C-alpha cells in the first residue's frame, strides 16, 4: 500500500514556515533521548517501493526531473523488501540551492518496514548501504540539546548552501508518532522565485564524479 510522506512539523524557532505549516511547540518528546540531526536537502521528497515510486503526491506524474531517480529505482527495486519503502530526496534538479558536489542525486532520510515503522537511524544507514544508496549528511548526533541543534544552522555561513536541518529520534518509531518524533528548521525566505521549480527550465545539480 502506498503511503504519503507526512508533513514534518517546524521547530518553534524555524523562520521558514508558511501559512499552511504546523509547528512542534512542545519538544519534550525529544528530551533525554538520543536524536540525529541531518541536513535538510533542497530537493523533492520521493518514496521507493519494490513495485512503485512516487513523489510526495501518490499520483505524481512523469516529469523530466524524475527520470534519473526512476532509473535508479529500476536498479534497486528488487532488493527492497515487500511492503517496505525507502524515502529520500530527489536532488537531480536545482530548486533554490544549487549543489556542486553531491554524492548522488538521491539521498535517503528514512526507511519504513512492512509494519509502517521508521527504522532506527543506524538501521536506515545499514539498509541504504545494502541498496548501494547514500544517506543525507548527519550534522549532530547525541542526547537532545537545544543549543547543539540550533548550532546546525549558522545564517552567516549557511545562508546560500543549506536549506535547514531535520531532527529525528535515533530510535525506531511508528508512523502514528511521526509528528512528535521528527521536526525541522527551514531558513527564512527559502523560496526565492515566484515560479515553482517544476515550471522552470531544469538545471541539473552536480555530483562529485561529474
Model description:
Helices cover 16% and strands 26% of the residues. The chain is α+β, with helices and mostly antiparallel strands and 210 residues long. The chain has a five-stranded mixed beta sheet. Strands 10-3-11-13 form a four-stranded antiparallel beta sheet. Strands 1-2 form a two-stranded parallel ribbon. Strand 4 and strand 5 (53-55) form a beta hairpin. It starts with 9 loop residues before the first strand and ends in a 24-residue tail after the last strand.
Q: Please count the helical segments.
A: 5
* Sheet having the most strands: 5 strands, mixed
Query: Total strand count, please?
Result: 13
Global shape: globular
Provide mean pLDDT, rounded: 92
* CATH C-level category: Alpha Beta
Strand order of the largest sheet: 5-4-6-7-9
CATH architectural type: 2-Layer Sandwich
Unreliable runs: none
Q: Hey, roughly how much beta strand do the residues contain?
A: 25-35%
Q: How many angstroms separate the termini? A: 37 Å
Order of helices and strands: EEEEEHEEEHEEHHEEHE
